[in-house]
């Protein structure tokens, strides 16, 4: 597919791509730097790397993605294009099937890396834009450009107490911006390199395809002509039209039989090609298929390993985000046979992602609730301050209403009203210069006692508010929040006023402000570390995802604690301002009698209040900075989630490939089982044939015991009888074919999948059966030799018997001529001997048949036992399914 982004001049001419120059070296342009490459990808980043739409040609309905300038109905234009393509592709390199598969795998691997790099580049570009915006906010020149006057800046500095747009923050923001731009340039350079690497295998595949088509293209055939070399009517006149007319608009001739290879001859032995062609046609088994099943099972195993590792990391992230889930959350499925836990791992991965989404939603909801509560607190504080200022300024505006969208409006109103309070305090300080000494001392003591009461009441209200918050969380069945336990709960609300106690309280307030400042530094350090972790390579991002989630939760907890402490300080300040207003009214009634000796103490208290107000403003600004940093961290977390979703999609594709591999494996198993059943039937027939032959040998051996004869005469007769010799040769051929079939069955059985435990057991049983059959075959060969010897002995004894019968007949005739039967009716001696021989022979035959029947019953019982065992193995394995398919179906 066409690649987007920056392109060099090497691919400007598609017909000259990859062709060596005259000096033997490929033409290459110098590598551009990262900034130029990033600028080339600007449009693609803005469009989200969308694939451009292919051209559309409505004149070509069979191939609408062709160029609009192409007219497929013009035979001359099509003929010229075909000739040009054939001529250009005649020197293209052609690869083997293995090399083509390797090139396709390489293209697939590079394509996946390109897609992942594009996603990372898009996310990093968003980070860069955010860093640029932050740098603009910290830049003083941008403030002036935005229309802020020096007077307003000076007044703002007087309200907040110190300028947050210092050189350190400007330098830090500039460093973050430069780091983000450097990371974008590195990703753009990597994407450019990957796309450049992808062009080489793609061009090789395209040239291979064109070379194959050019090699198999036969060209136009001769068109039939009429008499006198005249063109027949109805045939077009252009070359391409004539060619397509004779080939039915096909530019390819059918491939002849000479291109096909008879694969059956590659698996025949040399001796069987000569004399046993008929047997081979019936019993030859084709070659085993290539080991695609093994490769597919390896893919499934690797996929399961990756899923198991990913599930373990996700569980660690979930436990770190919420330690309460550590004991109740299930562990990933344990490793078993290949393919059995694939679906379980995917289900576990889906549950883990849902759990992470729930945790993120819960944290977001808590943050929104905290912001809403803070906005309500600020709104109430603004109303109290406005109520304090109304006696002095009736034109004070109303505080902004609650919106639930942020604290900016409430904070701006708070800053303005703090400025008005500062003006009133300055006016009160100017009026306090003429106070009397004694009255000032009394007033100072009164003010300090009032401040003491304000501080005590503020602490008591803070305790009550935290107690109400705990009761609310208990009523909602929520766990207790450890952040509610702050150090300010240890004081006594009924402690009497003393100078030492008042000094201790003031020092405690200062310590609280210092602690908040230290927490701010810790948060800044953690945010800086988090940003440094974000700039690492993509290979370590998955391992750092859990740490980032944990740091985000810690930052959120610190942010909540900071907000609560700031609320406490604000509440105390509001009480102090209220008491101060009461004291100011009393001071006005005595302002004529006061002197300026105690004005220094009042100014000190006023300066302390001013410092408190400045500290609160600074903490509010730091709180806003922390919120901005948290939004950036949330965007980074969303990017990580997007990467996880892309990995899940790739794993789903691997699962589909594994399912296809499973189907192919089941088909191969069914074919093997069918072959095994056929071979078992042939083995049973062979066993029956062996039993029959053993019976005949036993009967022949019994017949030999009743006769006599010469062995040399019988051997001569066997040599002169070709029927018996032919039967022996046929039995030998049958035995050899059965042996070859058993060897082929053993080879096919051994090529099955080694991953299936039940198939391995069946294979072992089959090998034992084959070994037993080989032993039986060796015994049958020995029995064949013994049978030949017995046949020769039988023939010899048969000749002797015939000679004895002839002699006996002659003797009977002689005795009949010489002597008649006795008067007493006694039997003749010849008849008596013949009767005895017949009785002995019948007894011997009965014994022989009984022995043969006993041996046959034992063999049949052994064969039935083997058949029962084989049937039990088949039943345990299941009807034509492997353990992989059974486990996948059950899941």
From TrEMBL:
Residues 293-320, 513-814 form a coiled coil. The lineage of its organism: Eukaryota, Fungi, Dikarya, Ascomycota, Pezizomycotina. Gene3D superfamilies: 1.10.287.1490. Transmembrane segments: none annotated. GO terms for cellular component: cytoplasm. This is Uncharacterized protein. It comes from the Eukaryota. Residues 225-237, 882-891 have a biased composition (Low complexity). Residues 479-492 have a biased composition (Acidic residues).
